[in-house]
Every structure is written in structure tokens, then in C-alpha cells.
Amino acid sequence: MGSPTFDLPPDTGAPPARRSRRKQARPGELLEAALDLFVSKGYAATRVEEVARLAGVSKGTLFLYFPSKQELFKALVRHVLADRFAEWSLELDNYQDDTASLIHYCYEVWWTRIGATKACGLPHLVMAEAHNFPEIAAFYRQEVVVPGNRLVERILQRGIDRGELRAMDVGYGTTLVLAPLIFCAIAQSSGGLCLPNPQFDVPAFLRLQADTLVRGLAPDAQGALP
């Protein structure tokens, strides 16, 4: 089943009635409530009744938009993560600066749009519950992991083609780029449990990571990649 669409009503020039405005806002309110509960309680422990209650609607109203908890979770993942890949791909198509600046920019964008938001808890949730809910893990891999890997592969291949990065297996290179983001997502969603101290500056760490990657993958760097 595909994800539901939430189109706004046509502009008639007059303000919509209060009931109409409320109806249009409900899907977003439900997804916001679902994000709060899924991230704080996990997939298994979250009940649709709680999501509806937090959003201020009945369970029956929730089911009008999302026929099951699994479909609610899928819509949430698409809303906060998967649907952004088209936007990010377009940004990459139009990016004019060099690859070093692009890698720094990607880390900054990830932090501001994902890492510093509640959405950073979703990767941790999926990894924690993948064994018990393999269908959720498979969905997340298809909708988020695969397109995310492809986007990073495009970034690295762009750098190779422009002579700004040395030739490499872009699969290994993609893992190098994404590993610190996964670490930061887990750190954020676990309350900083795996960080060395409470004052750990994640944006500063990501800037250092981006600089280290750029230097290590430069054409004149010492050593060879597999």
C-alpha cells in the first residue's frame, strides 16, 4: 500500500472554515505525535491509541489516515526522511563548488535537518527492533538506506570524475562517509550515552570528520584504498 497524500484544498480566495483547517492539519499532527512516541518508546511499545490521544483525535480518526501502526510508521519515515531524497538529489545536481566544500555542506545539512531533530532517533529505533520486526527493517532499508547510499556514491563519484578525490571503491567510501552520521544519530537518541563528555560538540566533530575525509581521499594522499 502506498503512502497517503495530504494535498491542500484549492485556493478559493476565502479563508477555509475552522473544521476544514483542522481536518487538513490532522495528518501532520498525527505524524508529529507518532514521531514523539516511536522515538521515545520504540516501535513495539507504541500503541496507536497513544498516538491518537497525543494528537488530540480518536483512534478511529487516526485509522482514517493510517490503516495500521505499520502504515503509520511507514508514512512517518517517508515524511521525515525518505521523501527528502528527491530534494537532496536536486541540490547535488545544482551544486557548483568543489567536492571538499560539498562534503562539508552535506554534513552540515544532515545535522541541521536530521541530526539535531527528533528524526535522528529513527535509525536507532530500526536497528534496535530489526530482529523482531524484519518487515520494518526491510522497508527502512529500501526507503532510506539504499537511496542514502546512492546519494553518497554520487557525491564520491563526482569527486573522482573531477579529479578532486582519488579512485576508490565507492561502496567502502560511502561507509566511511556515513559511519560518523550513524554514530551521531545513536549518540543523540541515547542521550549522549556513547559520547566522551556532556560538552561534546557534535557539529565540531562533524567538521573535523569532513576535513579528515577530504584529506584522506585526496588524490595526493599517501596509501591506497582497496
Automatic annotation (TrEMBL):
The record's listing under InterPro entries reads: Homeodomain-like_sf (IPR009057), HTH-type_TetR-like_transc_reg (IPR050109), HTH_TetR (IPR001647), Tet_transcr_reg_TetR-rel_C_sf (IPR036271), TetR_C (IPR011075)
Q: Which SUPFAM superfamilies match?
A: Homeodomain-like (SSF46689), Tetracyclin repressor-like, C-terminal domain (SSF48498)
Q: Where is this region: Disordered?
A: 1-26
Q: Where is the HTH tetR-type domain?
A: 24-84
The superkingdom listed in its UniProt entry is Bacteria
Tell me yes or no: is Transcription regulation among this UniProt entry's keywords: yes
| Keywords per UniProt | DNA-binding, Transcription, Transcription regulation
Q: Which residues bind DNA?
A: 47-66
On whether Transcription is a keyword of this UniProt record, the answer is: yes
What is the protein's name according to its record?
Answer: AcrR family transcriptional regulator
Task: Say which species the protein is native to.
Answer: Comamonas odontotermitis
